[in-house]
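haha ok so turns out i had the wrong file open the whole time. this is the CORRECT one, sorry everyone. sequence first:
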Amino acid sequence: MNFWRITALLQLASTVLLARGYPTLWDPPLWSLQTLGHATFAHVTKTTPFNATDLELLKKYQIVQFDKGQDVLDMPFATQEDRFIRAAKQVKAVNPNAKLLMYINGLINFPNFERIYNATKADPSLLLKNTKGEFITTGPIKNGTFDMRNSAMRKLFVADALYGIHSGVFDGVFIDRANFAARVLVEPELYARDGWDLDTAKTMVPAQTQLFNDLTTALGEEYIVLAKETGGGAAFNDWKVANAAMTTDTFCSQYKTTKAPKFNKTQCAEDIATVQTMAARGQLTESHGQGDLSNETQREFTMACFLIAAGNMSYFSYASWEKGLAWNLAGTRWWAEYDYPLGTPLGPAQRAGAWQYYRNFSSGTTVQLDLQQQTAHIAWAHRTRPQA
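then structure:
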């Protein structure tokens, strides 16, 4: 394809995007509701290469992405990006139709991401300072926070994303802490210990948005640009600048705590509505549920929430809620329910009161959900694998 044709296509894409007002995905992953398993993703980490059993599991998913510790023990002197590329090649070899996403944290300066980390060591002006001139440290890693107000920092970040894309094995990027500055505005006291202040957070909100504009422009709408939101009441506006999102760590679920888990029905209802709305726009969502792997009732509830919400390009996962396992291959399961026949929804979910939903599928499967009581029932029409 010659230069002028590429330029014309980019100009056309920009015109379409401006007219529509938000990006969509031109080359989406495989998706259907023939079974729930046809609408699943895996977000995994393994510190060593995948073995044959691992790959047998990962070949089943439509989307696979790796977390920040992937292959770290087996390739101790490599950059994290190169570890990801090695893992992605393993998965692509057995699951060539899957879309693979490269993880990059949108704020935290992890040392193993050397392509970015080394540049920030050489030029500390790329890192965020508060209004007192003090470096801000986000989370447990005390190596600094990316200053996305700085165009040079955004350019460095986009170059890292393109490094993964140009490897030929990644189909997009998964950007963690996409709207974290907006979360700081909701709970400023909580994050003051890391050096955040309100004035700095206010200037970082549009800067994080601009990063997604830059990524979408650089990658184009044929690649997935996924905003991993931080939840917690932070405003979710990244659908305007990214074609995919994970709205929370814990879709209609929670991490394990030493106290009795507190279910937030309002947040769950909002997450359901977000998945529905993004599907209607032609945008991709990942709903990452988690819980006690031995608790079938808990799993049924979270699956029901997803089935109420699901539309085109809505993907689901249900992992362990144990510390260290929620984003780990060891906490990932291919559930029996993933193989039960489901079929086309017979319309959108219906409401029966403020917190009750129900939905029917062409297989005869029905879903009932009550967020007020935190109960659900999925009446599977058939509990056997569909015929190939």
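DSSP finds ten helices and twelve strands in the chain.
again sry for the mixup
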